[in-house]
């Protein structure tokens, strides 16, 4: 069996695998009206072998709780097949202390909700992978990149260790990248626009959470490298890890 295929035991045949994403706006596909804002899930296919399909179910504004409470996990689990991957990245909106619809607490409800994604994927023969939340762009006066997710990343790390789930520490990896770039250069990776620069944002925008294409591509590259480093994917299931990809490869879809 090649590393790019998985035996479907129901049919006795080989088939390509799918990489599912459950997450929030930092990962989600974006519509044309939001361009040039981009989620890292839009760029992940560029770094995966063509026999790996990405099914991006990430949705703006969702937490581990609200995604599940809205019934969004159920169709994902219905679609997964043995050998598929389920990448789970929540945390940004779990911190919304003024919103009980989305709020979770790191060491209790957050872990309980995440565990439902893990057990659901495993029950279907798929492999769950937990991803700590990509960091926001925030620096102190000395130019040091600051962590912004409180105890949520550590709570996810602990859950992954306790249940032997592969963990991609995107919080740590992205924080290191923003530190390397510094306050000035990192701004080009985030959703900043001057007034009049884009017809979608006539008044401009200053957003240190969401990405422009360059940021989405680089976070997707971090994710792909981490999938290999953690042994989730084989090296020959990845491509273009050292290639400078053009922003024009990203595409935005019209509203349905």
TrEMBL record:
Q: Which Gene3D superfamilies match?
A: SGNH hydrolase
Query: SGNH hydrolase-type esterase domain: which residues?
Result: 23-215
Q: Read off the Pfam families from this record.
A: Lipase_GDSL_2
Q: Give the record's keywords alphabetically.
A: Hydrolase
Tell me its family: Belongs to the 'GDSL' lipolytic enzyme family.
Q: What is the protein name given in its UniProt record?
A: Rhamnogalacturonan acetylesterase
According to its UniProt entry, this protein's organism is Streptomyces enissocaesilis
